[in-house]
Amino acid sequence: MSRRTDLDISDDQRFALMKLRRSVADLKLDEKYDDCFLLRWLEARNFDPKGAEEMLRTSMKWREEWSINKDDGWQPPQVLVDYMPSGISGFDKEGSPVVVLPFAGFDVCGLLKSAPPKDMVRFLAQKLDSYLEVARQSSLKHGPKASQVCCIVDLTDFNLRQFTWRPAAEMTINLLQMYEANYPEILKACHAINAPKVFTFAFNILKNILTGNTMNKFIIYKADPSKWKPALASTIDSDQYPAFLGGSLRDPDGDPRYLTKINQGGKVPKELYSKNDKKLTNSDDMTLVNIKKGDKLYLKYTVTVPQSFLRWQFKTEGHDIKFGILATDSENIQTVIMPIKKVACHEFEEIGVIKCKHPGEYTVVFDNSYSFIRGKKLAYSIRIALPVKEKTIGTIDKMVNMEE
User: Fold this and answer.
1) Which residues neighbour 84 within 8 Å (Cβ) at sequence distance 6 or greater?
2) pLDDT, position 402
3) Residue 184 burial (CB < 10 Å; 0-12/13-18/19+)?
4) When you count CB atoms within 10 A of the terminal residue's CB, does the N or C end of the chain come out lower?
5) What's the whole-model pTM score?
6) Other beta carbons within 10 Å of 239
7) For position 276, what pLDDT does the model report?
8) Are strands 149-154 and 97-102 parallel, antiparallel or unpaired?
9) How far apart are CA 262 and CA 302, in angstroms?
């Protein structure tokens, strides 16, 4: 863990930095985790050394559990490499790397159907780490102001609909929370350009998940180049970002999207989707059952704490099945929470969550009554989770309600 002599901070902040440095000495952090790195955690906790230490230790534990940048031979699925949009185009006028994100190319549904969620988390963390290493190297030359990342998000053709699929909504929220907990204060500015009206809804959701410090870094522009082009030019030289965003960078063939550096992502072809073609077996994570032809499986769960979550994960072998959720209150009145309908969980593992607003008995139904020919082999994991922060509950609800 190296020290910096070029920091422009007050005496109190320098003292807090010294305390934090001493308190985490036992972690034996790598040299790349210098004073600029420690300052980010202090800023996220208003320069409270104890709070910053707790946050940093929790993050380091998370990195270990998720094998983030662990030298274990792991390679990300090629579909993530090919279809996750983003890239560094250059540097801003203070030396910070400029990350360009063509958001319309983020096919979160297709990626979730093609790669395990854990691989997506690990891959995105790996990406963030690589961007931060570029920023760190630049800061050694240009000073501490270059240690953060400048981002340009192109919201052309932004479509909120795919994020209303429950697994996609849940993954998006988890990724945002992962970012907040493990990459504090890495963002210098985020220029969100070509924002359509529907992005207003999405931005209100972001405000409920991200901290005020992060949200203050967002600068949002409608699809009016006369406004956002001068704004970008004021902080980034034209030869440091792509021509399709108003800069001067182009590919050798003249393509203004600068594909040699900026992965555009795009719609993931269905032939790349992972299918549940493996035989189902018993595991510690999932219960394996056989549902006879013409039969139903009822699983009852008692919820005692309002606003709890009921989460599910299931798949079948070879054929689809119907799935739904019912709720029975203290007066024995039954309500349909999720209508029973056919789910192609033999092709893609089904993952989802609902909020149990009221105490009562919640019944998960797996319905094979429509099949008079074959039974179904089902592997499932159903669990009740206690309420979390209200901002997360509200965010999930808004996304889910749009779908329904």
Assistant:
1) 106, 111, 123, 124, 127, 263, 265
2) 35
3) buried
4) C
5) 0.73
6) 10
7) 59
8) parallel
9) 49
